[in-house]
Amino acid sequence: MTKQALCHITYAAAVALSAVGSAHAAPTLEKAYLYVDTTDYNGSYTVGVRASVNGQGSEIQSVEASHLPVTGGKFSTWGLDLTQQGYYWNWAGQHVPLSAGPLTGSVTLTVRDATGSITTASDLKFLPEAEISIPVMSVDTTSTGYRVQTSNITGADYYTLWLWDPVARLYPSSQRVSDVASLNEVSFSGLVDGRTYRLFLSAYNPFTSGTLDQGDQSTFRSTTARDLTFFTSPVPEPSTASLLLAGLGLVVQVGARRRN
What we know:
By secondary structure, the protein is α+β, with helices and mostly antiparallel strands.
């Protein structure tokens, strides 16, 4: 074989290897999470999706979730935002009334990368039998904080309780327990006099679902809430206030008689 022929063969092999190396793999959807939230304070379902995505060396352009219902309400299509490297998350853009439930169908995830490659997977299923509900929350106000009555709350794998400050836009207090009776009192420490806070109590039922290799995670959550206005000096009960007013009236009458 001549030296020139060998050069031609070597060049052809290099071109072939280059073509193989430049073939780009489509992005992969490695794991997905579905969150179904039922809320008594606005009477609706909300749905969120989190996805773990591998771009296979190319930049991800978009990740979208689409709800495909069998019956009942529909959440349509919404985009997921990049929250940290490889993870995308967002709630659906609209709610569905609880009266339209139970939720049915599945969520399809579509991933697009910079090369135009698209990956689609339908692995997140709505399981109506997994829906849970907790009763409207009853709250006792003690001298040091708020305490939730938990005797009639059952049926979840774990519970969270947190207090939302709508002015500072943060949670001054939060707790997570597996036994609802273990919830502690929400302390008044750090609360602002005269400000209204929202106390949330949620019950969670997580389970593995879907068909991806790592197993998708679905969580059905039931949330109840109460708006509570904090005062540094306790506001007297109506019966107590009536007694105070009656006593004040008696004092006024006695004073008037003495002056006469």
